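Give me the fold.
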Amino acid sequence: MKLSEIFRMALGSLGVNKLRSSLTMLGITIGVFSVIGVMTAVSALRQSIETGISFLGSNIIQVSKRPIMLGDEGAGRRRYDMRRDITFAQAQRFKELMEGWSDVVCLKTFNNDSIAQATYQNHKSTPGITFGGSNEHFLAANQYAIGIGRNFTAEDVDLIRSVAIIGQDLVSSLFPNETPLGKLIKVSGRTYTVIGTFASKGSSFGASGDDIIMVPITRFLADYGAEKRSINIATQAPSQAEYNDTLDKAISAMRIVRQLRAEQENDFEVYSNDSLISAFAKVADVIGAGAFIISAIALLAAGVGIMNIMLVSVTERTKEIGIRKSIGARKFSVLTQFLIEAVAISVMGGLVGIALGVAAGNGIALMLSADLVFPWFWAALGLVVCCGIGIAFGFYPAYKAAALDPIEALRYE
């Protein structure tokens, strides 16, 4: 028999029992869907992070009290909460020690204790805007740019001026028909004069980068208090070649500021673009491993289901096999037909699982404002695994069908 004829007969046999074939495919679909869906979402997020972390600039070194990725509970969090806050005086001293090493030392802190909302006349922003204080280096350290107006100056910080720079979301909600420059806005009961706007930054991982108001850090601390408030510091290496030297200098400067002895470990965290990418990659690997294990169990169960259905099919079609063999069908033809049926069930289930997984994974990516991706490697691997499952679990039923004695098969009722 020609191979094309064997294919036609195999697919025709599957079409005779559509419901049974579909239910058998379902197990494969679930297994492939789980791993493809997770890996699509993870790949989309990883690509979005690796192509540019929106809140860090180039060659930026961040110093903070706590790690950037920290759970909400447990002894680990309590350990970091027990650390001393990085005070504004310490941050200023750090800035002085970094003179000559870095021209960009950004000091910043945010209002994390209450839901901030801005108002202008009868206009209100949405509650929960990003509101904080910083110095003149906030733009360089956080990849923002000025739209109209001006940036903070060193004088604004030194003289504790009540001025603010606002994001495009605030421009739209508070000043729909007029320029915001020179206008007085209120945030948490305090009044600030708008001196500039941030250029539009867009969203990242579901959070808008344009829903922001920044004031001079000295004004922020004067209005809302410095007690129980830790300052985050960002310093920029002059170039990638000087990054490691600048990192060493930053750690040494911070240890001096914190008055740590040689034998004491750091009571602050230092991280960069690369460290954040590495931390996310570790989380992604754990998630991927978990999805792979779950999928492996589901695919194993689906493989057993394929073998069971194929054995039932061989039993039901014993007489058919006997007739075919009695008129000259070779063992190889019978074996190939049943293997094709098993592989077809597995691959069709895999294709449906891949389609649903990619759709679900990219749906999650869209909700988090990440780029859409197609996980070619995982899709190809999924198809290879499905073929392997079809062959591995379909071989015994196919061999059993091919080995039937035609005379005994013809007698079967």
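The mean pLDDT is 83.
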